[in-house]
Structures are given as C-alpha cells and as structure tokens.
Design brief:
The strands form two sheets. The chain has a two-stranded antiparallel sheet. The chain has a two-stranded antiparallel ribbon with strand order 3-4. It contains four helices and four strands. It is flat and about 50 Å long. The protein has helices spanning 2-6, 30-39, 53-58, 73-90; strands at residues 10-12, 21-23, 43-44, 50-51. It has one domain (2-67). The longest helix has 18 residues, at 73-90. The protein has 94 residues and is an alpha+beta fold. It starts with a helix and ends with a helix. It is 41% helix and 11% strand.
Length: 94
C-alpha cells in the first residue's frame, strides 16, 4: 500500500546524457504518462527513443520520424483566412 502511494510514473528523455523528465500526477501508469508526454511536446524519434523538446532541437542524435515540412508564412495566413471565412459563412445567424 505504501509503495503504491509513493510511486509516480516518470518518462525520462532517452537522448544521450539528457536528464529531462516528464511526470503527470493524473496519469494512470507508464503508457498513460508516455502518451501525456507526447501531448506535451515530447516526440518519439525514428529509432523509438522518447525525446524532450530541447533535445529535438539541439541533439544531433535525434532522428526525425517524419520529414520536415517547410513553413511558408503567407500560405499559412491565407489558409487560416480562408478557413475562418468558410467557417463564418457556414455558421447560422444567431
């Protein structure tokens, strides 16, 4: 009983000597803690290692699992404006 009360599942960054960790007191176990870490911005690399946000950007050993998508500011603004206008037109008048 005491051991269960003291145990808090923690996910550690698996990149080299990084000591970052993620814990969520509402998590129900290790799988739930891992899922919550991913929701918080942690990522799994191509080799299956869990990486904190800092290591994703700075560690040369982080292998992206998906290709980087170039971001064009003007295209993003145009798409947002289009989606907003479409959403406003689809909403019924109050």
């Amino acid at each position: 009983m005491i051991g269960d009360q003291l145990r808090v599942p923690i996910m550690w960054c698996e990149m080299g000597s990084c000591i970052s960790w993620h814990a969520d007191p509402a998590a129900l176990g290790e799988a739930d803690t891992r899922a919550r870490a991913i929701e918080a911005g942690w990522r799994v690399d191509a080799l299956g290692r869990l990486a904190c946000p800092r290591c994703q950007q700075t560690d040369p050993g982080f292998w992206a699992s998906r290709p980087v998508v170039p971001w064009d500011r003007y295209t993003a603004i145009a798409r947002t404006a289009h989606a907003t206008a479409w959403g406003a037109a689809a909403m019924p008048a109050a």
